[in-house]
Protein: Amidohydrolase
Organism: Mycolicibacter sinensis
Amino acid sequence: MSFDLVVRNGTIVDGLGGDPYVGDVAVHEGIIVEVGTATGDARQVIDAHGLLVTPGFVDLHTHYDGQSIWSDRLNPSSAHGVTTALMGNCGVGFAPCRIADHDVLVDLMAGVEDIPGVVMTDGLPWTWETFPEFMDAVDARQRDIDVAAFLPHSPLRVYVMGQRGVDREPASPADLARMRELAREATEAGALGFSSSRLITHRTWTGARIPSYNAAYTEILEIGRGIADGGGGLIQFVPDLPNGAYQPVLQQVFDAATDAGLPVTFTLLIGNAGKPLWRDAITLVEKANGSGAAITAQVFPRPVGLIIGLDLSFNPFVLYPSYQEIAGLPLEERVAEMRKSEVRQRILADAPAIVPANPIAYLAQSWDWTYPLGDDADYEPDPSNSIAARATARGVSPVEEAYDRLLDDDGHAILLDALANFENNSLDTVGALMRRDDVVLGLGDGGAHYGMICDSSFPTYVLTHWARDRAAGRFSVAEAVRELTSVPARTAGLDDRGRIAVGYKADLNVIDHQRLRLHKPVVTYDLPAGGRRLDQTADGYVATIVAGEIISENGKPTAARPGRLVRGRQPAPS
């Protein structure tokens, strides 16, 4: 037989957790056609001797809604082996949307997802109004990897209710009927489900709570019923912690999903200290699943927080009036000013006095959980390296230590603010949760938070830290790959990918596991209108393949753009 591509003599990691074995993977017309020994000619051959051959990775939680329109590359995700990305998470996105509400959604995405307004104004053509029209616009764009989309709750609410939706007024029976109808329409057009958020730190750029913040049970239920009417899908949800408890909000969504007959995946964070509220959430999941529900907690495999620096959205001094006097200067000039003793003294003698639109800005002074992030990108740092501990060792205040570290590397230094998932200064709890069947990896957030995080590199971290370098609680390579491939694919209802077997989509990674290395994030200016974002690269990806075409070789993108919009849930090969 003649093949389009054969990956020969690699160590095949099947995506299901089976023992790795040496063999070939042959591809024809975007599909895996032989696994084991491939006999025949091939247009392209990759010699994978000594290398891992894995399925392409699936990221359940991204925000490439804009980038999938203005760019043909969905990096950083595609630079870290991701071949399918789900966008439209957190109940925010760009459709449905009337012309009169463009500014509302720009304000929403700028605040919740840290996408500069000018980037969206310059990068989005707004050639759509309805969600099906948005899907058509995404479908018309060639790109490196596949995307799939949720119907986002806040745009839907604004589209149906107008200003009443923005003001978070209760939906009327007529509003609910219209939301259900549009949810059915979106699902029939290919939405994988719908997303919503009730997180209090999800604010618009102007500081208002998002439209979906206090949506009632009946609203979640009717949208869910619309998804079911259209053929079914997944509910993605970000809960808040009213009165310090998960139960009220999660139970409401779990009940609505069960009544609508839909599965749920929700964001689960682990507090660094205090009462372990995550245990209550897991108890709720166990109870719901024991009664026939299909609930997964979605966790991130390293600390959740902020990357802060002088050239980023936040740093410890952004709320200081004295710092704001120079904040508008170019970085080089600002660093020169900050190195002057009189400027240093003035800023260090100041205190936060500016009220931010988003309360997350207050978290940039969490000294016990803030660490310099060096070239080796250590995301499980020793407590002795925190800003608080370093300050004590130097005999200075934490504010002074942070000030000095921000000036390292001529002001390009960055700090990791590990605000969650770092219980007892360790990732042990995260590792234990990752091993549960009711937990799935996600939260890469690619395409968003351009100036405050760069978490879409997490697959590389799983393969390096969790499956190679960590001294205790290490995962086998087969276990780690399973968590990056078949588990999220199954959660999303994309059963045509996520494993290496005959008939499955030929999305593959060829990886030099021993050479795999994650670099620290760097600032680039390649968004529309010259917008700033964080990017992060890695060594060790010999090839990433989408639908049988090589989209990158040795970390360098090729000209291939085989990625497509995935419309709706996909069955497993028969």
Summary: DSSP finds 19 helices and 25 strands in the chain. Residues 173-188 form the longest helix (16 residues). The mean pLDDT is 95. The domain at 57-305+422-456 is CATH 3.20.20.140 (TIM Barrel).
